Structures are given as C-alpha cells and as structure tokens.
Amino acid sequence: MHIMKFKNYKAIENVPFYFVKDLEADSDLIEINDINEKTIKLQKQKPNSYGYVLIQTDGKLAKEIARRTPNSIVESWKSIQCGLEEIIKPKLRNPEKIVMTERDWRTHKSAIRCYICEGKLQETRYNKVKYFDSARKFISSAHHGCVKIKCEATEEKLVEAMYHTQGLSIEEENIFKNVIKCYICKMSLRADINDNKVRDHDHFTGKYHGPAHRGCNLQLQIKPDEIKIPLIYHGGKHYDFHHKVRELGLVSEDKIEIIADNMENYKTIIIGQIKFIDSCQFQFPSLEKVASNLRGQEKSLEQLAKCFPIMAQSIPQHLLPILTQKSEYSYELNDPGRFSRTELPSRKEFNTVLGELNYCENGCKKCKHEIKGKKCNGECKKGDLKEVDDCEHKKIYTISQKQYKHAQKVWEEAKCKTFGDYHDLYLRTDVLILADSIQRFRMTMKEVSGLDPLNYITLPSFAFDMAKKDDQG
Fold first, then answer.
1. CB-based contacts of 314: which residues, under 8 Å, 6+ apart?
2. Is pLDDT above 80 for 251?
3. Is 241 buried (19+), middle (13-18) or exposed (0-12) by CB count in 10 A?
C-alpha cells in the first residue's frame, strides 16, 4: 500500500519577500468585428500605468511604486528586477543572527523531535564536531558533549576546541568525514550527521523557530540567486498575465516557464526568479469584498491601522476611513488630457460597457424588506434605504449615487488637484488593500497549518499538502 507523506518541507519556511502589483489600462472601443469569429471583441486594452509594493515577510513595506507611463509593462519589470537585486538579494545574503529567549533555550534542550519532519532528534551532545588541541591544531572528530566535558576539566575554552578561523586541509576534511569513533571516549560517532540536533531560526528576523535535524534545516536553506519571489496580481490569470507574456517575452532574456490552465489562461508564469501568482486562485473575492471583510464593523483610526497595517505605513492615517473602501474609477475615460483635469469626472463618465447601465436618474431606493419582495414594516429609516437597479425608469448610470459620492469624498479629503492625482491614489489603494489581505491570509494559514500559502500557486495544491501534514501529525 502506497502512503502519501508530507515532504515539501520548504513550504514551512516563510517567503522572505513578495510583490503585490496592479496595472491600469485605456479601454478603446472596437466597433468592427470579424463575422467569422465566435468571440465578440468589445475593447482593446492598452496599459497606461502600474503600481506595486514590495513586502517583507513580517509585513513591513520595503518599496512602493506608482507610475503613469505607456510603457508600463517593460518599465515595471525593470523596476521589479532592480528591487530583486538591490533590496532582496543583499538582505538574504546577510541573514540575521539567531535571537533566543530563556524559554527558547529550555524548549530546545528538552525537545526530542524535529519541528520540521517531526522525527526523533539525536541529542546535541552526540553531534559530530571537529576537535582541535590547545595549539589550534586539528586532531580528529569527537562528540560535542565529550569535547565540552574535557574543556571543563582542563579549563580550556569550548569555542577554541571546536572552531578554527582557517579552513581544514583536504586531508583533514577527509579524516573528519571518515572517522567513526570519538577521539575522546572512543565510542561510535553517528554516521548520519543529518540527524544531529540544531537550532533553526528565521534568517530574516532572527527569531528562533525550533529544534531540527541538521538535514531538515538544510532543506530550508534560502539561496539568494535561486529563490522564486512571488509577484501577486488580483485576477492575473484572466487579465494581467496576458499583457505580461506578450511583452516580456520580447524584452526578458530569462527563461519563461508556464503552467497553463488552457490555451488562453495560465495558472502561473515563472520568469527568472519571479513567480507570478493570481490571488483569485486562492478563492479571493472582489477587492470590494476583500476590503469589506478586513474592515468589518465601523472602527476607529487606530483599529483601521491594525486591520490595514501595510496601508497604514503608506497612507496618512486620517485617510484610512475612506481609502480602506474600494473606490470607483472611470475606466473608459480615454481623452489624452484627462490626467490634467482639475475636477472629478461626471457620474456618467464612470459608465462602462462591461458594467452596463444599472441606475436611473431619480435614484430610486428601497428598504431591505422591499428589496426581498416583502412589505416594509414601517420601522426602516431613511438612512436604511438602498439605491436599486430594478425600478421601471430608464437606466443611465453604471455606478450608484453612493459610489459616486464616495469618489467625490476621496477627491476632496485626499486633496486631489487633478484627475491624475485621483488615478494614482486609486491605483495605490487597490495594491495596498490586496497586500493587506494577502498578509492577513498568510498569517492565518501559517497559524493553522504551519505552511506559507505563497509557496504554492493555487489553493488546491496548498490544501493537499496541508492535509498530508495534518495526517502525519
């Protein structure tokens, strides 16, 4: 009988960095379609801007970019590569030293199982170490515990007896590897030194993770020039990835690897050290719903800052009440001078072909009972009424009065001077809302499963490993 076991130990390690990105595009109407094609083309999308954030594993904002440019795909890729070389790799090449509390030490000393594979640990005192004499000359291999006892008896320094600043010669290294008995006690040295007990820690924060086999610990090793850094889009599979593949295939010298869903949609794209992930493949709802879930009920500024910790690092705190709600955007406003406009576009200019016309000019409203087709009990107040799209009047607007008033409030409170300012703020808040939701999702799943979901590209692959790991425990 074949039993599947959890062996993807690398997924236990938190990804050290990840990008969250979005782009905006002009929507040019297509008036003529080929009658022989089954697909009706409504619009042609031309990217006009991009925005992204680079987030550390602990949720700190390392970099934020929002830029308007017709060459947004290529420019954003170069900027991301710059972040990889100038921020990510230098940090990974200089890991933090381990920091342990007294409780950590007690836990480590008493531990009998590896926290990674949950197998039994060999006691630290039996670890195979290099043994040097008082003249700093290599003698042979010995148990860690034996060297410690001998140093205590002879009042030698343990560090000097086990470590040497200069490397061993090839002959000495061979002696160390091949010796099977302790030089001091003459007892057997464990042949498989991968079972030795070591302290695993977060190389990014220095925090102690737990006791581990040396071999398991090495599996979590991060290689700065090989690690894949997640680049997350919301809905990338059906939209953003299409723009990327077309243009980056022409400008990037790195190998492009694709896991396809079908001929049109891709689950992921890997270009060099960047791994594209679609948050919707982890069952993320719309950004409007994501923001609502994070906000919950009405909250104070301090509470909102805790709900949106990444946004709070970038946006002035007094703007959090309005910017932690999904704003509206006039996607089909394409005139060349629109970014220089000094007023918010009219409500009609927020209309879209795909969004259709939903609301009448009268702003017809109903209470929650009437919306469900029931008679109002008379207890509903004016503030409880909601604008509806099922009245008998002619529909002329895509967005509701409430949505447009929110856009006006954002313009006023953020002190936007031009539509370009509003556009940049809209792009930034979309990215920051998604970043906060990703970080919350990571922390929740890590607490529940011990795995970082950003080591996966879809929810099913993550859930499958999670089930195997739980069953193993």
1. 53, 61, 64, 428, 432
2. no
3. buried
Question: Token pair 């140093």 is at which residue?
Answer: 151
Residue 232: what pLDDT?
Answer: 96
Q: What token pair was written down for 331?
A: 């996607």
What phi-psi label fits residue 439: left (phi over 0), alpha (psi between -120 and 50 degrees) or beta?
A: alpha
Domain CATH for 79 = 3.30.420
pLDDT confidence bin for 165, thresholds 50/70/90: low
- Specify the pLDDT at position 124: 61
Give whole-number Cα distances, 274 to 19, 38, 80, 225, in Å.
9, 35, 9, 11
The string over 380-393, giving b where at least 16 C-beta atoms fall within 10 Å of a residue's C-beta and e elsewhere, is eeeeebebbeeeee
State which H helix or E strand residue 196 sits in.
none
pLDDT at 169 (0 to 100)? 80
Predicted pLDDT of residue 122? 66
Angle at CA 255, nearest 5°, toward 249 and 259? 85
- Contact (Cβ atoms closer than 8 angstroms) between residue 429 and residue 308: no
Beta carbons of 450 and 14 less than 8 angstroms apart: no
Asked which of 371, 394, 417 is the last residue of a domain, the reply is: 417
Q: If DSSP states are collapsed to H, E and C, what string results for 92-128?
A: HHCCCCCECCHHHHHHHHHCCECCCCCCECECHHHCE
Strand partners, 259: 268
**110 and 210, same domain (yes or no):** yes
pLDDT in tens, 258-288: 888 887 788 998 999 999 999 999 989 899 9
Instruction: Find residue 99's DSSP bridge partners.
Output: 207
The most distant pair of C-alpha atoms in the chain lies apart, rounded to whole Å, by: 97
Structure tokens at 165: 């600043």
- State the residue for tokens 């190389």: 203
Would you give the end-to-end CA distance of the chain in angstroms?
A: 20
Which residue range(s) make up the domain with 65? 9-95+224-322+428-472
pTM check: above 0.70: yes
> DSSP secondary-structure letter at 87?
I
83 and 107 co-located in one domain: no
